[in-house]
Specification:
- The relative contact order is 0.03.
- It contains three helices and no strands.
- It has a domain of 50 residues.
- By secondary structure, the protein is an all-alpha fold.
Length: 124
């Protein structure tokens, strides 16, 4: 670039705009205007025809997977334990729900027990 501002004096807005316009005109004067580039495909579809089925007969593929006895037993035991714990949890919820054990009744019972151990509570 051949522009050097005067030392100690900043350019005004109009001077800066004129200088920017001059630089753009001189730098991009000889470049041809080009159109936007053609879009580049980002996928490919194979249009070749599929091969015809051959005359080879199907081959028997025997099942060879086996499950070890201890693995099957562990799986069954895990399911049984999970079902049992779930049943016990549902039963406990039902008992507590039907007995109407709420936080208020638990705290009242705790307060009565504390009075029995420590005498009369006088914070009221």
């Amino acid at each position: 670039m051949d522009f050097r501002p005067a030392p100690g004096r900043p350019m005004s807005d109009s001077e800066a705009a004129a200088e920017a316009e001059r630089i753009l005109r001189t730098e991009f004067r000889n470049q041809p205007q080009t159109a936007a580039p053609a879009p580049v495909p980002t996928s490919f579809r194979d249009e070749t025809p599929l091969p015809a089925f051959g005359s080879t007969p199907p081959v028997l593929q025997p099942e060879t997977r086996t499950v070890l006895a201890w693995a099957a037993g562990t799986a069954v035991a895990s399911i049984g334990i999970g079902a049992g714990i779930t049943g016990a949890g549902c039963g406990a919820w039902l008992v507590l729900h039907l007995a109407a054990v709420t936080l208020g009744s638990v705290s009242q019972h705790t307060e009565q027990t504390a009075r029995g151990f420590f005498g009369r509570i006088t914070n009221r």
